[in-house]
Design a protein that fits this description.
alpha/beta, Rossmann fold, six-stranded parallel β-sheet, elongated
């Protein structure tokens, strides 16, 4: 009887996760079954994600049960740096089940000498910092975090989203533009000029997919309110794809002995 293929769950939603799916196919082929899990907050997931699971698990206990039912052998948490809930659930679920887990994360951005950053700890502090810093603020922080800006007055928020909102946003003054990264510097520069943006709000999420807006803000000498990333969960961690592939290879080698 042939040996059961090992099952890898990639907690995704990022460009890094999608790239890792493709790389595992190239590197390991039929030796590995790959499932990508998405939260389901966008209507059009990225193509090429292997077996796809969309939606929540029901907390850490629900994830632990799913891992066991689906006979998952290893987990790579390649979620967004600000997706703290699923990362915490993954840590707890893997601790409970004894399943190996790796975090694939990104280094945060660092301010350069020409950047005009005001660094804040969280979304509430960001909302406070926006008062008086600009009158038309470009904002791209995900629909789940907009409530933090619901009481902000005297500022028009230009909100970028992947999908058009199905209901009014919880904001006093806003407009919506649609787009999905990666974005080019010239495109971001044109957007900021066209929308008459005088300040930018951003999460310090690292990576290259959305960094162009930071470069564009620098070129226009615009102030940027930058929200610091939450601490990375405890556990094995890598910042590049090759490190993740090496970790998977080592787990497969151990399983084969």
């Amino acid at each position: 009887m042939p040996a059961r293929k090992k099952h890898l769950l990639i907690l995704g939603g990022t460009a890094e996760a999608a790239a890792l799916v493709a790389a595992t196919g190239d590197r390991f082929g039929a030796r590995l079954t790959v499932t990508t899990s998405l939260a389901g907050r966008t209507l059009t997931p990225r193509a090429g994600l292997g077996q796809l699971r969309i939606g929540g698990f029901g907390g850490a206990a629900g994830l632990a049960g799913w891992l066991q039912t689906e006979k998952v052998d290893m987990v790579v948490d390649a979620t967004h740096p600000f997706a703290g809930t699923i990362s915490a659930n993954a840590r707890q679920a893997c601790d409970t089940t004894g399943i190996s887990r790796l975090i694939l994360t990104r280094p945060s951005w660092d301010a350069g000498p020409d950047d005009r950053w005001r660094e804040v700890a969280d979304f509430a502090a960001a909302a406070s910092a926006l008062s008086g810093i600009g009158s038309r603020v470009f904002l791209s922080v995900g629909s789940q975090k907009l409530q933090a800006f619901s009481q902000l007055r005297g500022v028009h928020l230009v909100v970028r989203m992947i999908d058009a909102p199905q209901e009014p946003l919880p904001l006093v003054s806003y407009s919506v533009i649609l787009g999905r990264g990666p974005f080019t510097e010239d495109a971001e520069l044109g957007l900021l000029r066209r929308e008459k943006i005088d300040a930018v709000l951003s999460r310090n999420s690292g990576g290259v997919s959305t960094y162009a807006k930071i470069v564009a803000a620098r070129r226009l000498a615009l102030p940027v309110v930058m929200i610091a990333p939450p601490p990375i969960e405890i556990g094995p961690c890598t910042i590049d794809q090759e490190g993740a592939l090496q970790w998977i290879s080592e787990k497969l080698a151990v399983a084969a002995t």
